[in-house]
Give the backbone structure.
Amino acid sequence: MEKNSGIKRLFYASLYSWQGFKSAMANESAFRQELIAALILTSFSFYLDVSAYERLAMIASLIMVLVVELINSAIECVVDRVGTERHTLSGRAKDYGSFAVLLTLLIAIAIWVLIIVN
């Protein structure tokens, strides 16, 4: 089977990304909550007296939380697809994904606090 290329590949990649967004919105409450927080905080960042670079760092940190949350959700989907029985490796995979989300949240908080306080 021949792979898509050029504009056709870009079209299908965009379609799959949109499907991923819709699925995350429908199935992942943590993603929905973090997206709402990101939208509110992004809007709030434009009322702060910060440089463009600081605002970029603030907004990028929020986007990174969303990215890692999606990767964590993907890991959980794959683990659940393989089997629903409890397994040490499955639990570790899910815990690692959760810890990655926590780390990005802590980084985002640190960036926001540092910029606002400074």
Observations:
- DSSP finds four helices and no strands in the chain.
- Helices lie at 6-27, 29-45, 52-82, 88-117.
- The mean pLDDT is 95.
- The CA atoms of residues 46 and 55 lie 8 Å apart.
